Design the sequence.
């Protein structure tokens, strides 16, 4: 879709997950900026990645402003610290009104802090359980 | 009054000591095992060792309906989450936190955490005040800096030195609420004379603050007269 060519995406956290998303979205024609405090983390980015790499704190409002959060269409917070992900997502959503925000959370109890339908959380542990159910011989039925 | 002190090192240590001396009921949570042990031994209190930004830790600390939570961790994001959980899940009435990044004072306010302290931010403000005017001794801001109370020394060459207060042409939203003459407090009336070396307490709105201070300061003559 041609529309995607003009969409701006900020990814905070150059984790394995962040890197994979950056590569995929970049090859689809999105305008990417990836932010991470650790310079060496950018080495993980694939060769076809054509976006910006910013070595800085992605929860710092001034850094986000300098990197165009005001005109960002999608914000993805996937650092190793879930508290940083929550703070970054809240800044993106509540201060800059970014339409789509995704974050990675490990602690399901923190779901209640994100009382915003436009912040969508991804829980690796939930996905692992799903996968285990699919591939294992054990029948798990946990409806709670 | 009951207070939770979550995280932090020296500042937590100092705060705990000071609160205990005021006989305030305290809960202390610290995620550093060694520091928890140190705090516990020094102050002779129980310290819960754990990450206060986790709901199950705060659950364990049993802080439901506490009056105040103070979050002193070195990570701003951790303090933010701790405060949010305390407010939303445990109905703590007031949450206060420190931040390393001065920009987060305004950010946290926008996100619903109203009491945010940044030492860099406070020091910068104080320095700003101290360097702009030498005779400005102290300023206290309240209500998000909507108004402030300043202590000003009347210099010998000030235009109003030796004149009655009714002659002082202050902006409309500024008042001299107190005059300290030779160490004695005077509740001023229009007839009160302000002398050189007197200290005056000026209450003013944010908009009038600068003008009011300039009006009372030494060099500037009030040309509206």
Sequence:
């Amino acid at each position: 879709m041609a529309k995607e060519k003009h969409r701006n995406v900020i990814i905070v956290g150059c984790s394995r997950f962040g890197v994979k998303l950056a590569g995929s979205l970049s090859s689809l024609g999105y305008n990417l900026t990836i932010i991470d405090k650790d310079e060496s983390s950018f080495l993980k980015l694939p060769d076809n990645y054509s976006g910006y790499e910013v070595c800085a704190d992605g929860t710092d409002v001034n850094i986000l402003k300098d990197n165009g959060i005001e005109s960002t269409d999608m914000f993805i917070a996937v650092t190793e610290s879930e508290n940083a992900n929550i703070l970054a997502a809240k800044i993106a959503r509540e201060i800059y009104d970014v339409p789509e925000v995704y974050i990675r959370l490990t602690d399901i109890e923190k779901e209640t802090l994100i009382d915003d339908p436009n912040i969508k959380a991804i829980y690796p542990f939930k996905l692992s359980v799903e996968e285990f159910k699919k591939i294992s011989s054990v029948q798990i039925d946990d409806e709670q | 009054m009951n207070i939770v002190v979550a995280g932090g090192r020296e500042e937590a240590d100092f705060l705990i000591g000071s609160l205990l001396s005021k006989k305030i009921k305290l809960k202390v949570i610290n995620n550093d095992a060694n520091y928890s042990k140190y705090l516990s031994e020094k102050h002779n209190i129980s310290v819960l060792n754990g990450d206060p930004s986790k709901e199950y830790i705060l659950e364990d600390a049993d802080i439901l309906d506490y009056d105040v939570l103070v979050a002193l961790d070195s990570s701003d994001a951790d303090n933010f989450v701790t405060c949010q959980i305390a407010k939303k899940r445990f109905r703590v009435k007031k949450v206060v936190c420190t931040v390393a990044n001065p920009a987060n004072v305004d950010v946290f306010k926008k996100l619903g955490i109203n009491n945010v302290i940044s030492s860099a931010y406070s020091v910068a403000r104080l320095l700003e005040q101290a360097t702009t005017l030498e005779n400005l001794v102290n300023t206290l801001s309240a209500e998000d800096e909507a108004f402030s109370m300043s202590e000003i020394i009347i210099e010998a060459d000030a235009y109003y030195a030796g004149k009655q207060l009714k002659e002082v042409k202050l902006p409309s939203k500024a008042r001299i609420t107190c005059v300290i003459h030779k160490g004695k407090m005077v509740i001023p009336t229009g007839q009160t004379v302000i002398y050189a070396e007197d200290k005056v307490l000026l209450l003013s709105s944010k908009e009038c603050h600068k003008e009011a201070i300039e009006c009372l300061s030494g060099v500037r003559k009030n040309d509206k007269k």
The longest strand of chain A covers residues 31-36. Chain A has one domain: 2-135.
